[in-house]
Write a structure and sequence with these properties.
Strand order of the largest sheet: 1-2-9-4-5
Largest sheet: 5 strands, antiparallel
Number of helices: 3
Distance between the termini: 21 Å
Strand content: 25-35%
Length: 186
């Protein structure tokens, strides 16, 4: 049973070291030189973000982001139309990814859906604003794996760092219990 506690302490200490390492700017730049996705310019059709267009300069995979806190991708929230007027299917991202846009006002974005743009051109989006009209949307190139890893580490950094002292406490308690058990048998 003690081996299990030692293993748990070791895993928590390693996770804590990973969290501490993720605070070093050089390490974050090594994971991904970009700190956040770059939003494409939106042309909003009205006073709210429920209808907008984006000019895509090349074919590829793009991400749609929302400011409303959502726990999972929501494919029903937005619909996209390509330059030819046909609907472009939306797909769920592989994982939930969030990012805080430091350049503006610390807006928190959640990766809502992805779309594969088959050709460059102007894509139109129609999105639902709920629960109220204050929601916003952004479109970026889909983040590559390195940027996704950096965003994930920055999102969970505090919890990872907290694992280090938890691991040390478990290690000390397990070693103390072992000594106490050894002294009782003498």
């Amino acid at each position: 049973m003690r081996r299990l506690w030692y293993a748990l302490a070791g895993v928590l200490a390693l996770l804590g070291c990973l969290g501490l390492t993720a605070t070093v700017p050089a390490v974050r730049r090594a994971i991904s030189p970009r700190a956040e996705p770059t939003s494409l310019p939106l042309r909003v059709a009205g006073p709210r973000y429920d209808g907008f267009t984006v000019d895509v300069d090349r074919a590829g995979r793009y991400a749609v982001w929302a400011t409303r806190p959502i726990g999972a991708p929501d494919l029903d929230r937005c619909a996209a139309t390509g330059p030819d007027g046909r609907a472009v299917p939306m797909a769920a991202p592989n994982r939930v990814v969030e990012w805080t846009e430091v350049a503006t006002d610390d807006t928190r974005w959640t990766w809502l859906a992805s779309l594969n743009a088959p050709t460059p051109g102007r894509y139109a989006f129609s999105c639902r604003l709920d629960p109220g009209p204050s929601g916003q949307y952004a479109v970026t190139r889909a983040p590559e794996a390195r940027l996704t890893a950096r965003l994930w580490l920055e999102q969970w950094r505090g919890l990872l760092i907290a694992a280090l002292p938890a691991g040390v406490v478990i290690l000390v308690m397990t070693a103390t219990w072992r000594r106490r058990d050894g002294n009782q048998g003498a």
